[in-house]
Q: What sequence folds into this?
């Protein structure tokens, strides 16, 4: 089976379709196509050129690319985007009219005008049955209201992160990866939620980018508070620099009561006694005892 990857949004997930009888040379990256999907006929863009796969390796039914989009198809797609803007305004008015506690995020209209989908966020469950009836009477097509999370909302609305660049999720991330507080701890970042959270309020997706590298570099590093042996004597770890593989240690000065702090390469350090670190970062040493 010969397939091609199609995206329906700029940073959306890639879906695979059978190219069927379409000329392979025409399906170059960026080519607009009309495809058959589970929710109807859709307009998409080729994101991955032809690839030959075994049918049994595909875990979902593979639908077909119907045709290369014509100039009329492109015009209809542009008209649909205008209809979505109009539908958004109408829906917002209906939500206010029905006094529903929900925030409308985005509107999607299928290419064949068979269905219109309204994406919204809400703090709890919303009884929108009357709203659906009202919208169906207005638009005369199938209506779907879909509640989404805050990460999906940020992806749809886009924005600017604390790095000064547009959001990763809205530009190139096609899927959300789970991010844990451990990623921030391994990278030596502040555990202040306001500093490691994105505009969606969740942990920043970019914490995942270098997770494997930091995990590998941390394998040979001691922890803060460990008692270690250095070329200058025994001491306690004050801080570590993972990327430079340096350890700052307070070493007892010989024949004196004072200590001196100095940097040592991780390979020159031997851990004598590990310091128990609380996994929650509270430092109590009790909540995560084995």
A:
């Amino acid at each position: 089976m010969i397939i091609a990857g199609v995206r329906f949004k700029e940073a959306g997930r890639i879906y695979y379709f059978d190219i069927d009888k379409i000329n392979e040379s025409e399906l170059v990256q960026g080519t607009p196509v009309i495809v058959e999907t589970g929710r109807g006929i859709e307009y998409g863009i080729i994101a991955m050129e032809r690839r030959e796969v075994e049918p049994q390796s595909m875990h979902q039914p593979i639908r077909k690319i119907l045709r290369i989009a014509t100039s009329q198809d492109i015009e209809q797609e542009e008209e649909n985007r205008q209809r979505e803007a109009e539908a958004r305004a109408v829906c917002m008015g209906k939500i206010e009219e029905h006094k529903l506690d929900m925030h409308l995020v985005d509107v999607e209209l299928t290419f064949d005008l068979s269905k219109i989908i309204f994406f919204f966020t809400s703090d709890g469950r919303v009884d929108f049955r009357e709203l659906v009836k009202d919208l169906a009477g207005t638009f005369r097509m199938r209506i779907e209201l879909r509640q989404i999370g805050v990460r999906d909302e940020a992806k749809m609305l886009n924005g600017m992160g604390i790095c000064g660049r547009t959001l990763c999720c809205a530009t190139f991330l096609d899927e959300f990866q789970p991010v844990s507080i451990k990623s921030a701890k391994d990278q030596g970042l502040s555990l202040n939620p306001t500093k490691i959270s994105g505009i969606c309020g969740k942990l920043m997706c970019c914490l995942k980018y270098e997770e494997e590298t930091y995990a590998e570099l941390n394998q040979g590093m001691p922890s803060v508070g460990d008692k270690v042996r250095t070329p200058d004597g025994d001491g306690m770890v004050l801080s570590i620099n993972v990327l430079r593989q340096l350890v700052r240690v307070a070493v007892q000065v010989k024949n004196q009561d004072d200590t001196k702090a100095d940097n040592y390469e991780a390979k020159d350090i031997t851990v004598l006694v590990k310091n128990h670190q609380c996994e929650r970062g509270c430092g109590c040493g009790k909540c995560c005892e084995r």
